[in-house]
Amino acid sequence: MIIDGMADRPLEEFGFKTPLEGAETPNMDKLVETGICGIMDPIKPGIRAGSDTSHISILGYDPYEVYTGRGPFEAAGVGVDVLKGDIAFRCNFSTADDMGIITDRRAGRIRERTDELAQAINSIDTIDGVKVIFKESTGHRAVLVLRGEGLSDKVSAADPKYDGKKWTRVEPMDNSSEAQKTAEILNMVVEKSYEILKSHPLNEERIANGENPANIILPRGAGAVPNVQSFENKYGLKAACIAETGLIKGIGKIMGMDIIDVEGATGGVDTNLDNIVQGILDTASEDYDFLLINIDGADEAGHDGNARDKLEFIEKADQVVGKLIDLEDFYIILTADHSTPISVMDHTGDPVPLLINGPGIRVDEIKTFDEKAAAQGGLCRIRGSDIMNILVDLMNKSTKFGA
């Protein structure tokens, strides 16, 4: 169970405690009393891990080999059947004026009917023999996949990153003909998206209602779909993934896990944790050896700089843990994928607390679950890439190295 972005730095408003130290977490503390703790560098010390690269590492894959960009995982996570050789991108529905100036990168944070816009974009179909696949995600987010011969992920983004700037023409990032071709196709997709969407009925409605139209798409985060060994083949464990965001679902899907969707799982502090608990309990009763669970609200609060929301969400996550404690014959690994300190409002390279509880654990002396206490635990300081080796060994499913 990964509480996304849970770890933090001391805050004056909490008496120089972190939100996790300040929160009431009796269930996490109960697990600590019969478990073993430590701190973990998701990738390695001082590396500011993304949610994607940290999960890849924690699952025992080398992010420096597997990770080509966020796009393929986002695409897989929203239901596109990505194939080896596809080039995938994250996208925003955005608002542009007639001069190509982006006036709102998130199109008024559009929430509804983006499937209609996606259907219109898919009328492009092919460009120069390359298949164009577009699908909406949540809110203003979407994904774009290019499928065909002679493509490359070595291209820049169309997103200018700030409102008030013209959308950025995509450029090749090396001298290859593949990168040049891909950049040209992307620029045509962006241009055609504006031509198609500027007069779309939904956008005419939005303008009439005083809302920003979603009249252009801005691709970024290019990545080639990686060819990775399935999780089951790697570890001999049948796995399922319960996550709130397309990104983490996509990681699970590309690794061959079954994806368990949960109604009301928003990825924010308003997520339906009761439904997530029920999803975990239902899945745990099925024929799975491993569950990857990601709960995201603490990360959102960290990015927003809202200390109180983060503390309160951690307390809600503790209630989730409390409803799982009585499951029998299982190991629970509780950690975060990275730190998202309130004072920084972004990911940092600080290590995160880690707890393992289950049969045969060498129980240490730690009594509370937080960054400071966990650093004194019996696991000491490990890397994310160590976790699966430890778990498989505890499950007595590891193979001996040597005679």
Topology:
Layout lengths: L1 E2 L15 H4 L3 H8 L1 E7 L9 H8 L4 H4 L4 H7 L9 E10 L4 E4 L9 H8 L4 E2 L2 E7 L4 E7 L17 E2 L10 H21 L3 H8 L7 E9 L6 H5 L3 E4 L3 H9 L3 E2 L13 H12 L5 E6 L1 H8 L2 H16 L9 E4 L16 E6 L13 H4 L5 E4 L3 H8 L9
Parallel strand pairs: 1-12, 2-15, 10-11, 10-12
Antiparallel strand pairs: 2-14, 3-4, 3-7, 3-9, 4-8, 5-6, 6-7, 13-14
- Might you state the CATH topology name of the largest domain? Alkaline Phosphatase, subunit A
Q: What fraction strand? A: 15-25%
Shape: globular
What structural class should be given to the helix and strand makeup?
alpha/beta
Return the string of H and E elements.
EHHEHHHEEHEEEEHHEHEHEHEHHEEHEH
Estimate the mean pLDDT confidence.
95
The major pleated sheet works out as: 7 strands, antiparallel
Portion in helices: 25-40%
Terminal residue distance? 35 Å
| Rg, Cα atoms, Å | 22 Å
Note down, in words, how this protein is organized.
With 403 residues, the chain is of the alpha/beta class. It has 2 domains: 2-67 and 229-394, Alkaline Phosphatase, subunit A (3-Layer(aba) Sandwich); 74-224, no CATH class. The protein has helices at residues 19-22, 26-33, 51-58, 63-66, 71-77, 114-121, 177-197, 201-208, 231-235, 246-254, 273-284, 297-304, 307-322, 371-374, 387-394; strands at 2-3, 35-41, 87-96, 101-104, 126-127, 130-136, 141-147, 165-166, 216-224, 239-242, 258-259, 290-295, 332-335, 352-357, 380-383. Helix 5 (71-77) packs across helix 10 (246-254).
